[in-house]
């Protein structure tokens, strides 16, 4: 069994201490009885806390046929050539919101983007990672390489993450998408997840709107569910009751859809331009 990851309580530096005594192939499963027919069964994820347990659903009855498997989380970048963080086994996979712990040979630390200082466990900042899996650089582009890799081999991921005291990594947001309000950092995805717990909201996206006094203000674009009766004041109050003051939504725009690219990623630049247009139109 892997041992606990070592996390320095002051610097937040995390080095893997996993040790594996043996590896073996999964135990073969007996054939199902009766045999599964894919026209009649569909592979699906049953509603449950992440990671979900897999099951086959009978297309005729909707009943679940138990399937002995679980889904784990993992994390990696193109620049790391592979995933360097993952959950192993059922217990680690029950850490909801975590992508697991470091793989063998990996080192990581969380850095304050403003000061460059290492942060302690539980505090979000930019994830830096080092190990033999990290690329040597971008071919023929020394400038871009120097922007992402330092002289000691640390790769700046550009992701805002946190590492807890047990060494489990959670991804918060992309650094470039963080909203900066009076020196505070606000993760759009945190507010989007909160907004989507509202029974009348189908989809939500949050972006920063430039403000002379605060730097940026969080504004939300919301798609309502069919038959819902949403109002800006109600939505702002819904969020304000559940977050600290600097994470409050300052404007809400009701829209028919959220612009996304082919991969389903929210087009935040388009929304920022739309917010600017709508706010200026009201001035």
From TrEMBL:
<dbReference type="GO" id="GO:0005524">
    <property type="term" value="F:ATP binding"/>
</dbReference>
<dbReference type="GO" id="GO:0016207">
    <property type="term" value="F:4-coumarate-CoA ligase activity"/>
</dbReference>
<dbReference type="InterPro" id="IPR025110">
    <property type="entry name" value="AMP-bd_C"/>
</dbReference>
<dbReference type="Pfam" id="PF00501">
    <property type="entry name" value="AMP-binding"/>
</dbReference>
<feature type="domain" description="AMP-dependent synthetase/ligase">
    <location>
        <begin position="51"/>
        <end position="139"/>
    </location>
</feature>
<dbReference type="InterPro" id="IPR042099">
    <property type="entry name" value="ANL_N_sf"/>
</dbReference>
<protein>
    <recommendedName>
        <fullName>4-coumarate--CoA ligase</fullName>
        <ecNumber>6.2.1.12</ecNumber>
    </recommendedName>
</protein>
<feature type="domain" description="AMP-binding enzyme C-terminal">
    <location>
        <begin position="190"/>
        <end position="265"/>
    </location>
</feature>
<keyword id="KW-0547">Nucleotide-binding</keyword>
<dbReference type="Pfam" id="PF13193">
    <property type="entry name" value="AMP-binding_C"/>
</dbReference>
<dbReference type="InterPro" id="IPR045851">
    <property type="entry name" value="AMP-bd_C_sf"/>
</dbReference>
<keyword id="KW-0436">Ligase</keyword>
<comment type="similarity">
    <text>Belongs to the ATP-dependent AMP-binding enzyme family.</text>
</comment>
<keyword id="KW-0067">ATP-binding</keyword>
<dbReference type="InterPro" id="IPR000873">
    <property type="entry name" value="AMP-dep_synth/lig_dom"/>
</dbReference>
